[in-house]
Structures are given as structure tokens and as C-alpha cells.
Here is the input.
Amino acid sequence: MQNLLVSSIAKRLVCLENLKLRGCEMMIEVLANEEDIEEDEIVFEKLKELTLAKLKSLTCFYHGKYALNFPSLESLNVYGCFKMKTFSGEGLDMPRLQKVNMKVCTNDLSSVIQQLQNDCSEFCDRMRKEFFEEWKLNG
Here is the structure.
């Protein structure tokens, strides 16, 4: 399976609050591009937690031409997705994001979003390491 959803299906998942994908070695992107949708953004209205783990072939969550909006997302966990260079091909909005790989990131949300777009895998790995270093220090 190279992707999990197409945008028209994603729009129907209005009650989805938690999405965890793990170990799908062939997945290249979570959300596949559809040329025939009319809106300029794809909204995951109620999604609060998103986990992408050990997806060896994943290059992005979505590489299409529409912006992604996660108005309720509070926690993003990305690890073991070493080919994931960008989260999405276009705009990305996560106004309630509080944690990336368990590390609190509410101070500069625009910087976090920019780093997710520029080098997602490297940024998320760094956030995970920082969390565990702080955890060890605070015991």
C-alpha cells in the first residue's frame, strides 16, 4: 500500500480523533493527491493526535497542491520515517499543536511548522532526543 487515503475520503472522516500508522514499509505518502477536488484545503477537523512510526518509505504526509489544516491537533509523533523530508507540499496549519514527539513546542509554533515543512524527519528526531534528555535530567 503506497498511501492510506485519498482526499475525498479524508474529508469524510469528520469524527477521526486519533490516527496511528506504524510499520507500513511500502507507504510513500499518507494522503494521496486527487486532481478533481474543488476546495483549496483539506481539513482534519477533530484529529487530536497523529503518529507516524517506522514508515521506511514515507516521503511526506501529503504532496498535493492543497493546504492541510489540523485545527484540533495537539500531539504529533513522527519517528523512524527517515525519508520524510517535508510534511506536506503546500500550506500547513496546526494552531493547537502542543507537542512534537512528546516535547512541548508551544513557544514558537510558526518555527515548528516551518521546520516540519523543511526537514520533517530530522526535526522530529531532534525533538525526540531533546525530550528524552530533559526526561533523564528531571528524572
Notes: Residues 109-138 form the longest helix (30 residues). The longest strand covers residues 18-22. The mean pLDDT is 89.
